[in-house]
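$ ./design --mode recover --in tokens.txt
reading tokens...
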């Protein structure tokens, strides 16, 4: 099982939309995939699931079919994670670990248990490996070799527990000052979390408890060009695009080095803003690259759909190559 998180502590860079579209693209490429909504805002879940079904999943205080419900016995101290967590079927090849606004209530508990690992307390390891074990069980249910993680735009305890469950991290960026500053925070934080988890992992007193390695290996970045507004000079856009490679190498990889002459190998893709397609896709409740003439994708929109499909397929293949994920022939 490969676990790949898309993460940036700066919001508004299209992270959730990327997870959504990549899940559909990998499914089209023949791969079974689990999309896991570990962001308490649950935006990924609302992209996949219609409101009527959402009302059932989030009815009253019943969380049995959400990520919070899978963790609740563990967080409440009444048991461990659900052995067979609910995975919402989206298509033959896509399953969803349903997000839940109630997940935010786990922040304090996840924060408290982090230092307790150093004292070799069994409960601390059960709690902090909870996300990983839920994802592992969900992937097994769907016979999925890939889990895509959507996490919130912050550096809190929930994201720390979610990201130690990630073998690889892809960083979505926008060509602006905020993404540059976000990278400078994100890189050292991932490095510190990895080192701290390695120290804790070595103290696990439970031989039969499967816990994540916490690799969080940087897999590259994706520039989401939709952050470029019509009123922003092209020179400003180019300026930030030029600065991203060096900041990524230094802050995330810890290797300033010299910028290659022929592009940046850490840039997985630069996706343009399909501004005209997104409203159509939201209305049709499908990925932008699956839009049909019946959905309103006619004329120039039809060409944009083809371009979108090609760009996301190239990105999916680039991520798979970087993360050593085998795609069906």
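writing sequence...
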């Amino acid at each position: 099982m490969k676990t790949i998180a898309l993460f940036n502590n700066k919001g508004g860079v299209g992270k959730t939309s990327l997870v959504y579209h990549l899940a559909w693209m990998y499914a089209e490429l023949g791969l079974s995939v689990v999309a896991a909504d570990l962001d308490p805002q649950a935006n990924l879940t609302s992209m996949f699931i219609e409101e009527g079904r959402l009302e059932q999943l989030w009815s009253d205080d019943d969380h049995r079919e959400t990520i919070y419900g899978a963790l609740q016995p563990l967080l409440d101290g009444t048991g461990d994670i659900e052995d067979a967590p609910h995975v919402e079927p989206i298509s033959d090849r896509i399953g969803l670990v349903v997000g839940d606004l109630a997940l935010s209530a786990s922040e304090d508990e996840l924060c408290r248990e982090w230092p307790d690992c150093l004292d070799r307390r069994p409960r601390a390891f059960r709690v902090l490996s909870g996300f990983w074990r839920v994802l592992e069980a969900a992937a097994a249910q769907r016979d999925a070799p890939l889990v895509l993680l959507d996490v919130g735009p912050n550096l809190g305890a929930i994201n720390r527990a979610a990201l130690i469950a990630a073998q690889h991290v892809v960083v979505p960026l926008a060509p602006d000052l905020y993404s540059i500053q976000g990278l400078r925070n994100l890189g050292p934080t991932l490095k510190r979390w990895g080192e701290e988890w390695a120290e804790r992992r070595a103290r696990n007193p439970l031989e039969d408890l499967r816990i994540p390695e916490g690799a969080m290996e940087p897999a590259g970045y994706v520039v989401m060009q939709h952050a470029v507004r019509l009123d922003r000079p092209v020179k400003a856009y180019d300026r930030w695009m030029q600065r991203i490679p060096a900041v990524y190498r230094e802050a995330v990889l810890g290797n300033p080095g010299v910028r290659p002459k022929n592009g940046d190998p850490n840039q997985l893709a630069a996706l343009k803003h399909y501004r005209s397609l997104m409203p159509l896709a939201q209305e049709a409740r499908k990925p932008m690259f699956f839009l049909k003439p019946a959905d309103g994708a006619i004329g120039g929109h039809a060409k944009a759909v083809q371009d979108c499909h090609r760009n996301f397929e190239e990105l999916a293949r680039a991520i798979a190559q970087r993360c050593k994920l085998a795609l069906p022939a």
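exit 0
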